[in-house]
Amino acid sequence: MSDRWFDDLPEHDPDDPEAVERALRRQERAARRHDSGKGRGPSLRPSRVGRPRRERSGGSGGNGPHKGRIAVVAAGAVGLILVLWFLLALFQPFKGDGSGESFPVNVPSGDSVGQIGDLLADKGVISNATLFEVRATLSGKRGALNHGVHQFKKDMSYSAAIEELTKTTSKKTITITIPEGLSRSEAADVIKDAGLPGDYMAATVKVPGFNPNDYGAQGRAKNLEGFLFPATYELKPTADVEDLVAEQLQAFKDNIAGVNMKYAKSKNLTVYDVLTIASMIEREVSVAKERKLVSAVIYNRLKMGEPLGIDATTRFALDNWTEPLTESDLAVDSPYNTRTNQGLPPGPIGSPGLASMEAAAHPAKSDVWLYVVKPGGCGEHVFSSSLEEHNRNVEKYQEAQSEAGGSPTGC
């Protein structure tokens, strides 16, 4: 046994053999415990050298929780922005009743809220059909939207459009009155104001099943001017201009069938010619009893080869029914200018009523061929059969006009 081994022994008294023996046994037991790994000697756990260091939560060097809090706040802000955007888009606090002129939209019977939304979006009334449906639902008015013709504007708020759709009247029909003698363009304004949907001018160019040549137009009719019978019409709430035109044409057929055309035909005039004469009578006459006399003037001037000189035909050519005609207007180069052209104009200048059609077919038996407004006559005229007499009547008219400082037609 080496000296080194003894150096490892616990302190002992070398002169005490028993003490040495005890020390040796303790040393052997310690060695056996070390070899078996079951003793309470030094730890056999591997060294911590080279092992990764774990970050301590909450330590001053970590930033994981801080980044998490930022992400949560950011997500909440985005969510809040989206909610605010949706509420603004849905309730539209900065929109009102729309812009521009009102225009009619016919909501067909039976349309769902979604279909109504699509229709209004297509017309530019609202910006989004889906949000419109949501708004109608939230307002509790899904079942209160009425079909029929409503007046809308461009770019309305959902609430304004819904309010218009909830309006209703006790009337079950749309009433439209077309005055006698109006041209198509004038009637179109009346129909638009009545709220009937559709393009009246386009609808009155041509209609399948109705041919102006059947009435002697001989290809002269470019549209249905003259055939659109003036009257008061009761239409369904879902009607449009095509429905109105169909009723006008049927009314024309019914009325013209009762007019005796025998005399007009004896003068080589067609039904279309009679309509043309009747349309001029409507414009010239304010007093019903003068219809047949004005008709006689037209017939007589046609027979004489004299220009008719009816300025209403020039107004029709210019589509000017309200402003005074200038000298250049009266000289306009148009086949409708009956001052510069002999004979009848190419066609009617409006749609006449039954009384004027009958007067055009049966003029008064008279040789008058001139007339002028009667001063203070409430729209009456003074008729004459000679140029001299007519000139005297014109002088009286001009004197009254000068005294009145304007038209002397008052009563």
List the main descriptive attributes of the protein structure presented here:
411 residues, disordered N terminus, two-stranded antiparallel ribbon, mainly alpha, elongated, Dna Ligase, domain 1, 8% strand, 16 helices, 44% helix
Write the layout of secondary structure elements.
Elements: H1 3-7, H2 17-36, H3 64-91, E1 99-107, H4 113-122, H5 129-138, E2 148-154, H6 158-165, E3 174-177, H7 184-193, H8 200-203, E4 232-235, H9 241-256, H10 262-266, H11 271-284, H12 291-304, H13 311-318, H14 327-330, H15 354-361, E5 370-373, E6 381-384, H16 387-404
Antiparallel strand pairs: 1-2, 3-4, 5-6
Helix pairs in contact: 4-5, 11-12, 11-15, 12-15
Mean pLDDT: 84
Q: N-to-C terminal Cα separation, in Å? A: 160 Å
Main sheet makeup: 2 strands, antiparallel
Percent in strands = 5-15%
Strand order of the largest sheet: 1-2
